[in-house]
Amino acid sequence: MFYRPQDGHGLPHNPFNAIVTPRPIGWISTRGADGSDNLAPYSFFNAVAYEPPQVMFASTSAKPDRDGTKDSVSNIRETGVFCVNIVEFAMKDVMNQTSGPWDREIDEFELAGIEKAACDTIACSRVAAAPANLECKLTQIVQLPGEANFTVFGEVTGIHLRDDCLIDGEFDVLRFNPLTRMGYRDYSVVREKFSLKRPGD
């Protein structure tokens, strides 16, 4: 099968998200200029640089009260900061609860019963029990082709690692099993890992 996206795929559901998988989930916490907290998951998320450490996430839909985007991007425009909370398998249900199209006045931490903790380098809340949190200062927001496609880039200014995930000096993902996004309504979980040595190492 071959298709041009501009012509449509002719399938019951768009296969694009099922092709680019698995994708890590960035559970993005933000705070508006009015002090309100927001928490929402994004599967167009990844780390993009080591020195200095930088991450990105993309928002691809809009709410009518948020000037062509969603709460997360709107809050980041106002305050210039955000926190990436890493999602473990055990948090799948509360993460999913925060993905709903909630009104801007809703605090998803409270909605899903998630404990907050204060960030250290930015004025923002984080998921207290997450395996890791990346505190970020906005570097740029890039508008991509499409009506509501925005990519947010941030420099990581503080990192929290849960103590039980540090094994022999390494951050061990098998201690918490990262949740990953597949296509359609599907998810997966990391339960195995192996190492490869690069040529020349």
TrEMBL record:
InterPro entries reported in the protein's UniProt record: Flavin_Rdtase-like_dom (IPR002563), Split_barrel_FMN-bd (IPR012349)
Range of residues in the leader sequence: none
GO molecular function annotations of the record: FMN binding; oxidoreductase activity, acting on the CH-NH group of donors, NAD or NADP as acceptor
Domain of life: Bacteria
A Pfam family per the record: Flavin_Reduct
Domain Flavin reductase like: 18-173
Protein name stated in the entry: NADH-FMN oxidoreductase RutF, flavin reductase (DIM6/NTAB) family
Lineage summary: Bacteria, Pseudomonadati, Pseudomonadota, Alphaproteobacteria, Rhodobacterales
